[in-house]
Amino acid sequence: MTLNQQKIDITDRVVGKLKSNGIDLYLENEKIGQISLPEGSSFNLAHHFETDHQKIYQNVSVPDKAQERYTDCDEGGWC
């Protein structure tokens, strides 16, 4: 039995993680490469996303847990 070399498209499975000087590329948990970025490079993200210290954050609105209330109670207070 012989084994033949074959190319498999893994593009949709590759994940990039920000680093101080670029982006590390991973396939599952295996580092497969790196994209180096010049000093002073910036990221353009949608308005509700931002980067800070090599992390990407999404700004979302969440309920204030300090004022949790039942929302389906009647006027008498029965829930």
TrEMBL record:
Superkingdom of the organism of origin: Bacteria
Protein name, UniProt field: DUF2553 family protein
InterPro entries with a match to the protein in the record: Uncharacterised_YusG (IPR020140)
Organism: Cytobacillus oceanisediminis
Pfam families (alphabetical): DUF2553
